[in-house]
Amino acid sequence: MKSLNFKQVGYQQASFSDSIKSLARQVHETLPNFDEEVSDEVKAELYLGYQLRVAENQPKLKQHFVIESGNYLPVDEVAFNKFEGAKYIRSVDNIMSYTPQAFGALRQSNPQLHSILKEPRDAISKYCSNTLNALKKAVREIKNEGKPRERGATKSFAETVKDTLDGLKKKCANAKARVDDTADEKKLILAISEFNRKWLAK
Q: d(Cα 76, Cα 19) in Å, to the nearest integer?
């Protein structure tokens, strides 16, 4: 079994934590309410940074294709450079260059390209979202330094149920905006209505 220097692991973890706190403090000094609201402009800039890191960590996402009879055929760079017909380079920049609406339309206009991009695009989007949320959390912790933690009033179970259902409606709308085929608002509303019919029955 390979031995692990846990002293070094601990030091590196602590150093990483310090770096995150330092970044969060800088963000908080510039945008005190970053944990509550992020402008589209700032979010876009952050996502460009996150995507740059993805490209560094996952160089295999960059792939060369030649296009023959509408088919995207993966080839190495040498064959790609020699090929004189239509060709395409998949890169993180290209994967994420489409708006949600444009990418959804690609499923009809160019299904092969859509299939080549969808899996890495979904993974990159999730990574960016999770990384942004982690930064918001770190900023929130900086914002609350030295403040006594206040416990909110405990919700009744009925309030929890209502908030959960309202949250599902919002999440479904957001998913639909991202062109998520599984986000069926009509079906969700019918399901919630049926649930409420049973739940609210006397």
A: 39
Q: What distance in Å separates the CA atoms of residue 137 and residue 23, rounded to the nearest whole number?
A: 12
Rounded Cα gap, residues 52 and 178, in angstroms:
22
Which has the closest alpha carbon to 54: 12, 13, 93?
93
pTM to 2 decimals? 0.72
- Which stretches in the chain have pLDDT values below 50? none
List helix spans (H) across 68-179. Answer: 77-82, 92-95, 100-109, 111-143, 157-177
User: If residue 88 lies in a helix (H) or strand (E), which one and from where to where?
Assistant: strand 87-90
Residue 114's pLDDT is what? 97
Torsion from C-alpha of 68, 73, 78, 79, nearest 10 degrees: -40
Q: Which residues contact 14 (CB under 8 A, 6 or more apart)?
A: none
Which of the 8 DSSP states describes residue 151? Answer: P
- Three-class SS of residue 4? coil
With a CB cutoff of 8 Å and minimum separation 6, the contacts of 92 are 51, 52, 54, 55, 58, 61, 62, 120, 124
